[in-house]
Specification:
heterodimer, A: mainly alpha, two-stranded antiparallel ribbon, 20 helices, 67% helix, globular, B: mainly alpha, Four Helix Bundle (Hemerythrin (Met), subunit A), elongated, Cyt_c_Oxase_su1_BS (chain A), membrane (chain A), Cyt_C_Oxase_1 (chain A)
């Protein structure tokens, strides 16, 4: 029995036992359901083995929404614990675990996949391509992310959650102070999904650089595709740093090396530096695609061209360069000295300039436009003021001398939530609503959508504005309780109310998906928003080959100009289309990664070796196999096009 | 699949072009990976704790041998790709085989070097310096090991299928990988060994 003791939870509570039961019951329900409805074959053929960028995008989307709720439950529990002084809902250990997993889940397993979901679905369509450059690799990216996310999530019920914060600073995250396997999960699960993200980066750079429709020069690309290109370049240059940092952290914990220890020449600050050399570019990996979504939504619903296209591109390029030069601002108080702090203060404040340019460009796009307030537009309009407040407080934090007052207080927590929620979450919800008809062939209910948008918009302000005040009054972040005499009670109670509003907003979104799936009209045009870019020029939902005839582009906003001038986007005629074959190998290989990760977490070396052989076996199989894909015949294309309501040519 | 006749075989299809570009981007990521290792090495170089320093454990002979062997293997794989472009399959296979053999020799010497370090009391767990030293060298060594298996798989395919757009594309990409490992080694040689022994 000694062998099994390692899998026990170090700090169990009734809630965790309840979660175990719930997880087991859900798993049984899924297995029974799939067997009863005979859907195993369907699931395997159509989803688990797919290499279609659209289906992979949808799987990313589902995972992101599930993880949003996992991270959201963590958030609600934190706010509930802090709502009143001297609360005993959670003890300090559980609180530590919950704020750690909240951060990791929201950043790595909610925001990242949400962004990659939209990139997967939209970018190939926007550039008029059939798929991404490496469809098989794309499937592997998804499954690695998914297995990493699952590995991280089982930490909750097997072995214990990480509890050293989402930044996992050493020496706190070392063996001495974090004895449970929780931090092993952190190191290894993020490593696995990070490899997937790196491959996504490579895949999309190659796709965008090489597979654009004829005539679409770089400066004629839609802004979302531009943002995807820049984001993926940042991914390729930032993620290897995280890979190395996590590998070193893993070795410190499993093999007793001295990278980040405090004795024998180890350097704990090395982790903080490496983490943020990746971590700050990561902030822009998250925000740039969000900017891209707004740059699609705002022109569409203002009926105007995007103001300042070139300056939009230039500011993104500048942001991407500056993003690598500001990492020290995350630890101004950790002893770099005045000169270093001043330099990083200035580079940090400099980022506000290109970001400000973008804000003004959106405002000028709105100026004198015929504005239609739809749900995506509502999110965009809520984004501009809230994000600006979050951004301006960021400039306050950037002043290193003043930062000694703000560092590690709720002021900081308020700041980054007020940029990341309107920045990323609003954008993803706007993008989700905007591209939903393209993905599924029906619209989400506008009334429910607007209710959710208002609740989330106001909820964000109610939840996070009070933290500015309690933070300046001295409430430290990650503190699991406080006494009544501090006077923080009222602010935390208001924040709790805001968190409830946010939760209701997200529940309405899910209800909206259910409601619209059931009742929304399927009889909608391919271009329901009267939009501007190429993805709206094909059918909804999109056929597997995307475009029957490759579009030819002459201007920016190609589809818009085509509608206005009655031009002809599709000049060729039907030809055979080459498509990649489905493959189960990405799924199987990622499953081996999951087992490998699990074995590493618990130092089960034999299992680790067996699963590593499995991983290399999959790579060998890929090297030796010959897969030339298949061709769709002209008749098949004609038939599909007619079934979808008339040929697009 | 349209085949462009004016291009070398490895560039002749659209997918081949994509593969090569994709691999260059991957090398960009690899540069960042090794750059991070080097940066960490420079930071931890003098943090030897109670363990030995670089000067005390580095010995010039195996290092010089490793360097010559790896640089030569980079040359022979270049010859291999040249033979491939001329369509001379046998010559190409021979050069690839020599390359992989040199790779094996390099790896053998590196394993010897590692056991020597452990003997001198510089194991992975000794100090910050030895941890980063063995991790940096080990990451490079693991890449070479991976390359050996990859190269064998490619030679098997060439033997079976001949020089096709697919197999030449794979061989060319493999040669990029091998040259890259060589470049990394030059940095290791200069900034780990020479700097450490000065």
């Amino acid at each position: 029995m000694e062998f099994f003791e390692r899998f026990a939870i170090p700090h169990p509570s009734p809630a965790i036992y309840a979660a175990m039961v719930a997880i087991v019951l859900t798993t049984i329900a899924i297995i029974v359901g799939l067997t009863y409805f005979k859907k195993w074959g369907y699931l395997w053929r159509e989803w688990l083995t797919t290499v279609d960028h659209k289906r992979i995008g949808i799987m990313y989307l589902i995972s992101a929404i599930l993880m949003l709720f996992r991270g959201g439950v963590d958030a609600i529990m934190m706010r509930a614990q802090l709502a009143v002084p001297d609360n005993t809902l959670l003890d300090s250990q559980h609180y530590n675990e919950i704020f750690s997993t909240h951060g990791v889940v929201m950043i790595f397993f909610m925001a990242m996949p949400f962004i990659i979901a939209l990139m997967n679905y939209v970018v190939p369509l926007q550039i008029g391509a059939r798929d991404v450059a490496f469809p098989r690799l794309n499937a592997l990216s998804f499954w690695l992310f998914f297995m990493g996310a699952m590995l991280f999530n089982i930490s909750f019920i097997v072995g214990g959650s990480p509890d050293a914060g989402w930044t996992s600073y050493f020496p706190l995250a070392g063996n001495e102070f974090s004895k449970s396997v929780g931090t092993n999960y952190y190191m290894i699960a993020i490593q696995i999904s990070g490899i997937g993200t790196l491959m996504t980066g490579i895949n999309f750079i190659a796709t965008i650089l090489k597979m654009r429709a004829p005539g679409m020069t770089l400066m004629k690309m839609p802004m979302f595709t531009w943002s995807a290109l820049i984001t993926n370049i940042i991914i390729v240059f930032a993620f290897p740093v995280l890979t190395v940092a996590l590998a070193m952290g893993t070795m410190d914990r499993l093999f007793a090396t001295h990278f980040f220890t405090t004795g024998n020449g180890g350097m704990d600050m090395l982790w903080a530096n490496l983490f943020w050399v990746w971590g700050h570019p990561e902030v822009y990996i998250l925000i740039l695609p969000a900017f891209g979504v707004y740059s699609e939504v705002i022109p569409t619903f203002s009926g105007r061209n995007l103001y300042g296209y070139k300056s939009m591109v230039a500011s993104m390029v500048i942001i991407s360069l500056l993003s690598f030069l500001v990492w020290v601002h995350h630890f101004f108080t950790m002893g770099q000295g005045a000169l270093v702090n001043s330099i990083f203060s200035i580079t940090t404040m400099a980022i506000a300039v290109p970001t400000g340019i973008k804000i003004f460009n959106w405002l000028f796009t709105l100026w004198k436009g015929k504005i239609r307030i739809t749900t995506p537009m509502l999110y965009s309009l809520l984004f501009i003021p809230i994000f600006t407040i979050g951004g301006v407080t960021g400039v306050m934090l950037a002043m290193s001398a003043a930062d000694y007052q703000y560092h590690n207080t709720m002021f900081l927590v308020a700041h980054f939530h007020l940029v990341i929620i309107p920045g990323v979450v609003f954008a993803m919800l706007a993008g989700l609503t905007y591209w939903w008809p393209k993905m599924f062939g029906f619209m989400l209910n506008e009334k429910l959508g607007k209710w959710a948008a208002w609740l989330i918009g106001i909820g964000t302000c109610v939840a996070f504005f009070p933290m500015f005040i309690s933070g300046l009054d001295g409430q430290a972040r990650r503190m699991y309780t406080y006494s009544e005499a501090t006077g923080f009670g009222i602010w935390n109670m208001i924040a709790f109310v805001g968190a409830i509003m946010l939760a209701i907003g997200f529940v309405i979104i899910v209800y909206n998906i259910y409601y619209s799936t059931r009742y929304a009209s399927r009889d909608i045009p391919a271009d329901p928003w009267n939009a501007r870019s190429l993805e709206w020029a094909t059918h909804s939902p999109v056929p597997e080959y995307n475009f029957a005839v490759t579009p030819e582009v002459t201007t920016r906003d190609a589809f818009w100009n085509h509608k206005k001038n009655n031009g002809n986007l599709f000049k060729g005629k039907y030809e055979e289309i080459h498509m990649p074959n489905n493959s189960g190998v990405p799924f199987i290989m990622s499953a081996f990664f999951f087992v490998f990760g699990f074995a590493m977490v618990f130092s089960l070396w034999i299992l680790a070796i067996i699963s590593a052989i499995g991983i290399f076996g999959c790579m060998a199989h890929r090297s030796l196999e010959q897969d030339h894909g298949h061709h769709l015949s002209v008749d098949h294309i004609k038939e599909t096009e007619e079934k979808l309501g008339g040929a697009k040519s | 699949m349209s085949i462009e006749k004016t291009q070398p075989l490895e560039y002749s299809t659209e997918q081949n072009n994509l593969n090569i570009l994709g691999f260059w981007i991957f090398i960009g990521a690899e540069i960042m990976l090794f750059a991070t290792l080097f940066a960490s090495y420079f930071l931890l170089e003098n943090r030897t704790g109670s363990g030995p320093s670089g000067e005390e454990i580095f010995t010039i002979t195996p290092i010089m041998l490793e360097t010559f062997i790896l640089l030569t293997s980079s040359f022979t794989i270049g010859l291999g790709v040249h033979a491939m472009r001329l369509g001379r399959q046998k010559a190409m296979q021979a050069f690839f085989a020599i390359t992989l053999l040199l790779g094996v020799c390099f790896l053998g010497l590196e394993i010897y070097e590692f056991t020597h370090y452990v003997h001198e009391g510089a194991s992975l767990q000794t100090s910050g310096f030895t941890s980063i030293l063995l991790t940096t060298l080990g990451t490079h060594g693991a890449h070479v090991t991976f390359g050996l298996f990859w190269g064998i798989f490619i030679m098997m395919q060439i033997k079976k299928r001949g020089l096709t757009p697919e197999t030449t594309n794979k061989s060319f990409i493999f040669s990029l990988y091998w040259h890259f490992l060589d470049v990394v080694w030059i940095f290791i040689f200069s900034f780990v060994y020479l700097k450490g022994m000065m």
